[in-house]
Amino acid sequence: MPSKNKARGNRLERLVVNQAKEVGIDAIRAYASNGMSLGEAEDVDVKIGEFKGQCKMRKKIASFMKPPKSCDIALIKEDREDTLVVIRYQDFLNMMLKQMGVL
């Protein structure tokens, strides 16, 4: 029986893939959360369009990582590391649909 964290991660992977498919974006989940099954690096959990993603689900996410209601994105950076963008998933899917010419 998988651990609670593994089961939670699997649910998130299925959720994001299903949400992408519902709006017409190709998406696939890696078998056993191993990107090698998709011909990708081992840590790739899902492919949404041409984007490779790793899914992480936590009970609580630090509030500074979440975009405020008044903002579309949050930009975060660790010392001596790349800057990352945090965006709401539905906004990300809408950006992809615009890029595809659907919206």
Task: Give a structural overview.
- This protein is of the alpha+beta class.
- It has one domain.
- The chain contains 2 helices and 5 strands, in the order αβββββα.
- It has a 3-stranded antiparallel sheet, covered by helices on one side. A two-stranded antiparallel ribbon has the order 4-5.
- It is globular and about 35 Å long.
- The protein starts with a helix and ends with a helix.
Estimated helix fraction: 25-40%
Which spans of ≥5 residues are poorly predicted at pLDDT below 50? none
Mean pLDDT over the full residue set: 94
Number of strands: 5
| Rg for CA atoms | 15 Å
- Structural class label: alpha+beta
Sketch the major β-sheet. Answer: 3 strands, antiparallel
Query: Helices and strands, in N-to-C order?
Result: HEEEEEH
Alpha plus pi helix count? 2
How many domains make up the 3D coordinates? 1
Adjacency order of strands in the biggest sheet? 1-2-3
Gap between N and C termini, in Å?
42 Å
Overall, the morphology is globular
What percent of residues are in strands? 15-25%
Mind sketching the topology for me?
Blueprint: H1 4-22, E1 27-29, E2 46-48, E3 51-53, E4 73-77, E5 83-87, H2 89-99
Antiparallel strand pairs: 1-2, 2-3, 4-5
